[in-house]
Specification:
The complex is a heterodimer of chains A (113) and B (118). Chain A has 113 residues and is an all-beta fold. In chain A, 0% of the residues lie in helices and 51% in strands. In chain A, the strands form 3 sheets. In chain A, strands 2, 5, 6, 10, 11 and 12 form a 6-stranded mixed sheet that branches. In chain A, strands 3-9-8-7 form a 4-stranded antiparallel sheet, with no helix packed on it. The radius of gyration of chain A is 13 Å and the shape is globular. Chain A starts with a strand and ends with a strand. By secondary structure, chain B is mostly beta strands. In chain B, the strands form 2 sheets. In chain B, strands 2, 4, 5, 6, 9, 10 and 11 form a 7-stranded mixed sheet that branches. Classes of the chains: A mainly beta (113), B mainly beta (118). The interface between A and B is medium-sized, with 28 and 27 residues.
């Protein structure tokens, strides 16, 4: 079975500092896609960043970057220069290219002013 | 592009009643998903439509649940004989793509319908 595990229920970061959110997954597939989604309080979930497993280069989107370790099945999200607007639930997600996206249980990120 | 719209935003119902939720995806999106999210959990996959065809249903979807997407546009999710365990946020998401899921446009989520069964 394919699973996604986020072991940090909650993280805090000081404004302007850097924080890393962890995610591990389990699959027997060799080709798949990984995502980080952000869910602000009472707002829609939005895509933060996407990584294709066949790409060795880690994806980056402005202040957001990932550390993708395929052998270790690890996919962490680094947020640099944290801003108050980054406060949200962050979900790691996986799809092997079939229909289903599998989400982790989420990490609540608090940004301290 | 007005985004994915879900209606109603909140629904309170008594155990045993039937409820129906509606999702209007982004107009050009051919893929539509329903997810269920309970407090402290990530979204759990319920079902997937490609155009009007329902291509996958989760085992979570008991025979009390039914979903449709007539004409490949809006979708409805009906829960019959609701139970307290059905209380959750029901999320709809859509995307556009022809090939492997994951390569297509990102999932666009609606605001969800929060169901409370008393």
């Amino acid at each position: 079975a394919q699973t996604v595990t986020q072991s940090q229920p909650e993280m805090s970061v000081q404004e302007a500092e850097t924080v890393t959110l962890s995610c591990t997954y389990d699959t027997s597939e060799s080709d798949y896609y990984l995502f980080w989604y952000k869910q602000p309080p009472s707002r829609q979930m939005i895509l933060v960043i996407r990584q294709e497993a066949y790409k060795q280069q880690n994806a980056t989107e402005n202040r957001f970057s990932v550390n993708f370790q395929k052998a270790a099945k690890s996919f962490s999200l680094k947020i640099s220069d944290s801003q108050l607007g980054d406060a949200a639930m962050y979900f790691c997600a996986f799809t092997s290219g079939t229909y289903k996206y599998i989400f982790g249980t989420g990490t609540r990120l608090k940004v301290l002013a | 592009d007005t985004g994915v719209s879900q209606d109603p935003r909140h629904k309170i119902t008594k155990r045993g009643q039937n409820v129906t939720f509606r999702c209007d995806p982004i107009s050009e999106h051919n893929r539509l998903y329903w997810y269920r999210q309970t407090l402290g959990q990530g979204p759990e996959f319920l079902t997937y439509f490609q155009n009007e065809a329902q291509l996958e249903k989760s085992r979570l979807l008991s025979d009390r649940f039914s979903a449709e997407r007539p004409k490949g546009s809006f979708s409805t999710l009906e829960i019959q004989r609701t139970e307290q365990g059905d209380s959750a946020m029901y999320l709809c998401a859509s995307s556009h793509g022809q090939g492997r899921v994951g390569l297509d446009s990102p999932l666009h989520f609606g605001n969800g319908t929060r169901l409370t069964v008393t």
